[in-house]
Amino acid sequence: MRYRAVIHHLSLGLFGRSLCIDEFPEDARRLAGIGMSDSDKYARRLAKRLAYTNTYYHREPRFDIQNVPAEYERRFAFVISSDVLEHVAPPVDHAFRNLHRVLIPSGMLVLTVPFATEGDTVEHFPDLFDYRLAKQNDRYVLHNTTSDGRLQAFDGLCFHGGPGSTLEMRLFSESALRKHLSEAGFSNISIHREPAFERGIFWNAPWSVPITATA
Q1: What residue numbers bound the domain in which 32 lies?
Q2: Residue partners of 113: CB distance under 8 A and separation at least 6
Q3: At 213, is the secondary structure helix, strand, or coil?
Q4: For residues 108 and 50, what is the distance between their CA atoms, to the nearest angstrom?
Q5: Per-residue pLDDT tens for 85-128?
Q6: Structural domain contains residue 155
Q7: Residue 53: CB partners within 8 Å, gap ≥ 6?
């Protein structure tokens, strides 16, 4: 359902109506955008209808949201970031600023992350600086040296899909997400809890639903 919702809100933002990918208008090929490790369930089809490239943190075509090259500045009409930012090493506000930076004026962000509706964002490793993962007795432990030289070790780690870059760094809160987006320069921030039954979209909980915002 998350995949269907991403395409539903992308279509609404780009074309003003909900279309299946195969129904995107022919002139949509002029719209440049990127996905951040998007699912192949829709990424390959998007690449046939839009000037879209799916990017990856660990392989080509590479895109590191914390280290955006200058040539990406104000380049894209849309960015899809689906369940990625909870894995980005801190400070995460830098990633939000870079998302805004790569979008053209009025460009669109389609964002999904796990989030809670109340409280503040929970940073699992708030002092992360120089860190590595190590396997100990069939489990992973994160070893960190803080910027002031303190040694830390964390177990009970949460991975989404496997170890490595899929380590969960935080659980966002809704209010923090709004703040991150607003402070990065985004406007028209919308959290989409409404169903779209015609697209098979119905959220049975108010958290972790799609978010859209405009640069």
Answers
A1: 2-124+168-214
A2: 83, 84, 85, 86, 172, 177, 208, 211
A3: strand
A4: 14
A5: 999 999 999 999 999 999 999 999 999 999 999 999 999 999 99
A6: no
A7: 33, 34, 35, 47, 61
pLDDT digits (tens, 9 = 90+) for 13-72: 999 999 999 999 999 999 999 999 999 999 999 999 999 999 998 889 999 999 999 999
Burial class (CB in 10 A: 0-12, 13-18, 19+), 102: buried
Task: Tell me, yes or no, whether 202 lies in a domain.
Answer: yes
Which residues are CB-neighbours of 163 under 8 A, at least 6 positions away?
133, 140
CATH of residue 174: 3.40.50.150
Instruction: Look up residue 87 and give its amino acid.
Output: H
User: If you write DSSP's letter for every residue of 142-165 in order, what string do you get?
Assistant: EEEE-TTS-EEEE-S--BSSSSST
Residue 141 located in a structural domain: no
Q: How many domains does the chain have?
A: 1
